[in-house]
Amino acid sequence: MIVFACISVALLLVDSRMHSLSTVRQVVGTVLYPLQMAALTPRNAIDGVGDYFSSLSNLEQQVSELKRQQIATAQTLQQAQLSLTENNHLRQLMDARQHVPVKSMLAEILYDTRDASTRKIVLDRGTQQGMSLGLPVIDNLGVVGQVTRVFPFTAEVTLLTDKEQAIPVQVLRNGLRSVAYGHDKAGLLDLRFVEPNADIVVGDVMITSGLDGVYPAGLAVARVIKVDNNANGAFGTVLCQPLAGIGRNTQLLVLTSVPDMPPRPPDEEIRAPKKHAGKMAPIKDDAGKEPIKDAAREPAPKDAAAPKDAAPATPAAPAAVKAKDTQ
């Protein structure tokens, strides 16, 4: 050990003074480089796996945040589009400056319902997260549906295309109001009770009118794809294609606040007609005189005196018997 220690000290002195071992060091480092990389492979593999999962989690969070911002921006854009259209039509909106964005909550679709005859989905938000009945559900393109059942941790949403669902709408181009119902054909909406000469053409965009107090005004609903103005019938046929991605969404936006609507007036009490104790008085004619009573329908009073020149009343049956006997 002393001999090798002396050799090492001698090599250190020679290298520091004469720099004669630099070439040897480079050759040895080049030869041992593959062995060094092979020894470091397990450590690099473990570090790479940790970095992969960490970056994947960060990317998922960024994508979720970007989707939420996109949906919120789309909602604001739809409301701005409604305000622009109303200004173009010279509508007077006194409360336009007081309009504030509607509060919303991000939810994820868990699964579709099992009933094949209905079109419903289940979200991962319930009463514990502030969900309640009747709240509208939208995405970044338009209205998706409405919350119809609520559970502690989940909620059921009925889509617009369900045959039992209806939503008040209006044409964005001219403000014509109507009601859109879910059509029997999957994925379409039907405007019922539309006049044959209504100003609706293919390509018109339908938005919420806000008259029901559930859906805020100005949310995009559907686009008209078919108009059948049948002059022979009482109403025309108008079919619409929903603008929202009803069948391809994974995350939706639930509007947690509804528009403020004035309270409904109290129902008027229906009064029953009073019963008259006596007979109704006869209706007088234009001259103010009572009409002449029909003698054939109304019998004469018992105490009324018979006319002097009137013949005595003879029963009809005895007269017929006498005529038979005479024959």
How would you describe the overall organization of this protein?
The structure is a single chain. With 327 residues, the chain is of the alpha+beta class. The protein is elongated, with a radius of gyration of 45 Å. Helix content is 29%, strand content 22%. The chain has a six-stranded antiparallel barrel with strand order 1-2-5-4-3-12. Strands 6-7-8-11-10-9 form a six-stranded antiparallel β-barrel. A hairpin with a 7-residue loop joins strand 1 and strand 2. The C terminus is likely disordered.
Write the layout of secondary structure elements.
Elements: H1 2-18, H2 22-88, E1 104-112, E2 120-123, E3 136-138, E4 143-150, E5 155-159, E6 166-171, E7 177-182, E8 189-194, E9 205-208, E10 220-228, E11 236-242, E12 251-255, H3 316-326
Antiparallel strand pairs: 1-2, 1-12, 2-5, 3-4, 3-12, 4-5, 6-7, 6-9, 7-8, 8-11, 9-10, 10-11
